[in-house]
Amino acid sequence: MNCLEFRRELAASPQVMSAAAREHRGHCSTCADAWHRAQLFEQRLQSVLAVPVPMGLADRILLRQTTDSRVHRQSARQTWIRLAAGLMMTAGMVGVGYLTFGTSASLASASMAHLSHEPFALNRTELIPAATVSQLFAESGVYLKAPLQSITYLTRCPVYGQKTIHMVIRDGGQPITAIYVPNNQQGSADFAERQIVGRHRNIGHGTLVLMAEHGDAFDRIEASFRAAIEGSSSLAGMY
């Protein structure tokens, strides 16, 4: 098993790994470190989910809902409508191109949600060889015309209902998440949620999603991906 295969298995099943993965972890310090960070994240997640529910809470909630529905039926309905609208705004993306919650918004929402699944990816600083990046793209049916560099995290992840290529790129110390969705064009849109900004653009036969704390490097990174995938720019190999 090589490092790329280990990362794929780690992303798919961080708590239960095959004998080959355990053997690889035993002699690869980089992958062992990635496994350790994944376990810490899983432990924190389990501790959050394990918070005990106060005794009788469900009964009190049901009683309160019943009482409110009898006394303030119309007011409660309006409150739930406002709450639902607020949740949609939180889950959705606010920005250029989002006049409705269509398929583009779903891609942006799914990509944003995926960030929370692999937070340890943003901490990686070791560069992945360009040949390894090209190999993973080729396995997805995308043959790069120029190398993609400055990538510190690389794996295939299920996002938006299909396998995507999830990457992290280092730009002046800032981690920038890039997700390429092969054979699925979603057009152009910008989005933002809380402290994260993003965009997605059609590149080749797929869609590139970029997300970071700020988008200063988005134009350069987009140009580099476009050059590598489409062969249309002199900026190829910049990232």
TrEMBL record:
Q: Transmembrane ranges? A: 80-101
Question: What keywords is this UniProt entry annotated with?
Answer: Membrane, Transmembrane, Transmembrane helix
InterPro entries per UniProt: DUF3379 (IPR021806)
Q: Name one Pfam family in it.
A: DUF3379
Q: Does the keyword Transmembrane helix apply?
A: yes
Instruction: Classify the source by domain of life.
Output: Bacteria
Protein name as it appears in the record: DUF3379 domain-containing protein
